[in-house]
Amino acid sequence: MHPLRIFATVFAMIAGLWLLANSIMSLTSAPEVDVLSSSVPNPDEIARPRVPEEAQSLKNPMTASPEMIVEGREIYLGSGNCYVCHGNEAKGDGEAGALLNPKPSDLTDPTFQRVRKDGEIFWAIKNGVPTRGMFSYVPRMITEEQAWKVVVYIRSLRSV
Ligand code: HEC
Fold first, then answer.
1. pLDDT tens-digit profile of 9-44?
2. How far is CA 43 from the centre of its chain?
3. At a CB cut-off of 8 Å and minimum separation 6, what does 85 contact?
4. With a 6 A CB cut-off, is 128 part of the ligand 1 pocket?
5. pLDDT tens digit string along 74-88?
6. Which of 41, 57, 64, 130 has the least CB density, counted as fewest CB within 10 Å?
7. How many angstroms separate the CA atoms of 88 and 97, rounded?
């Protein structure tokens, strides 16, 4: 056989194997996920700030206590109406939130709890999260003081 023919045959075999390997890889590798519509939260997406940076320096005027956690939870489940979207246990699975995109935040999420300052949580409750489907709740439904109590309750959901 002519050396050029041997080369061409070997080349064709390698190219064939490469194509085969690629098609197997594309069958087994995970499909691209659309972050916003995915039910599996992307940690980077959760960490991305939702509110202006100035909110980080807002100080929580409340001193947390077991009674205040209970009170904050009552507001969350009561006049604040938060549970309809964020769910009874604040995991982002409330009935009214099911059809929203993006989904209401899982307020128990460890990344959320780690990166968010109290002031950012308060800001979101007070002003809403523009463009993300979370409305403003102060003063429409609760007072600033009640919003801080809800912040205290949300903080109590930190798992560690
Ligand atoms: C109409 C449904 C709905 C209701 C009711 C609602 N939220 Fe939200 N909330 C959302 C959505 C949607 C987002 C945006 C999620 C995102 O940006 O990924 C959000 C975001 C938030 C955030 C910001 C999360 C972050 O990543 O910084 C906080 C805090 C929050 N909600 C708390 C509350 C509290 C407390 C209440 C009650 C006073 C409440 N929400 C009521 C739908 C709702």
1. 776 777 666 766 666 655 555 445 444 555 566 777
2. 7
3. 92, 94, 96, 97, 100, 104, 134
4. no
5. 999 999 999 999 999
6. 57
7. 12
pLDDT in tens, 39-63: 566 777 899 999 999 999 999 999 9
- Ligand 1 site, residue 125, Cβ cutoff 6 A: yes
CA distances 47 to 8, 51, 105, 109, Å, are 53, 12, 11, 10
CB-ligand 1 contact for 133 (6 Å cutoff): yes
In this structure, the number of other CB atoms found within 10 A of the CB of residue 49 comes to 12
Q: What is each CA distance from 80 to 36, 72, 127, in whole angstroms? A: 25, 10, 13
Atom of ligand 1 nearest to the CA of 51: 27
Does 96 sit in the ligand 1 pocket, CB within 6 Å? yes
CA 131 to ligand 1 center in whole angstroms: 12
134 close to ligand 1 (CB < 6 Angstrom): yes
- Determine if ligand 1 sits within 6 Å of the CB of residue 50: yes
CA 103 to chain centre: 8
Cβ(136)–Cβ(122) below 8 Å: no
Distance CA 70, CA 138 (A): 20
